[in-house]
Amino acid sequence: MKYGLIVEGGGMKCAYGAAILDRFLDEKISFDYCIGISAGSANLASFLAGQRDRNRRYYVEHSDDPRYLSLRNYFKTGSLFGLDYIYSYMTNSDGPDPLDFPALQRDNTEYEIVTTDGATGKPVYLNKSHMVQDDYWAVKASCALPAACKPVKHDGFTFFDGGVSDSLPIERALEKGCDKVVVVMSKPKGYVKKPQGGRWFYKIACRKYPAIVNALDNRHIMYSRELNRLYELEKEGKVFLYMMSRDIDISVYTKDKAIIQSVYDLGLEDYETLRPELHRFLDIE
Fold this sequence. Notes:
The chain has helices at residues 15-26, 39-48, 54-61, 71-77, 83-90, 101-106, 137-143, 170-175, 199-205, 210-217, 219-235, 257-281, and strands at residues 3-7, 33-37, 110-117, 123-127, 152-154, 157-161, 180-188, 239-244. By secondary structure, the protein is an alpha/beta fold. Strands 1, 2, 3, 4, 5, 6, 7 and 8 form an eight-stranded mixed sheet that branches. It starts with a strand and ends with a helix.
């Protein structure tokens, strides 16, 4: 039996998933295969490195620095999120809250990161071979929201946020041989994705990348298809879903610490509620 884990992106909403992953660490629950999208890929890096509470700190304690997320960032660097600040300063070995990269490398879990090819609009799946100590360009690429962030360029390729092309990569997990998959989402139950807002803005901002504009235009269709697939597999007993049990007014860009902490706390609450069902799903005695 091969167990997989998918961690969805969603900016500051990913504080919910941070709580779920912390509880996995508490209970020493591991997986054979993990795949993360956008901020979900960063959450997974901390999880696989065994760094409990690190993700929560990034969402709740570090996010008030304007270098993390601000309009000032956008006018200064072209990106709302300071991807270099977060993943090339804060996260580095000499940074204030480093990733334990040696521990991540020692972990035997197959770990993939979803990105989107700027030329084709198709998903590109990266892995630990694309990461070295203090060079986490793959995670940056997965988090590079079109229009809100500059794309990440590496080895002649241009990458955008993984959620643009494969928001809920269940088919990838199945291709990798997973028999059962836990999916940690950043959305509430009953969520329906609407067409991408601000089309005029992303059409102008991404005018050099028509495939990305097209992917954004159709993202709600892709997302709905993948979400419906998850619901089907959930009924078949092959997928276990974590979704917020109640809707909290939080966006990708929320900076209110109290709201972000409440989302994290809801993750802890939902974990406890679903803990017996999760143990049955994972065949934990």
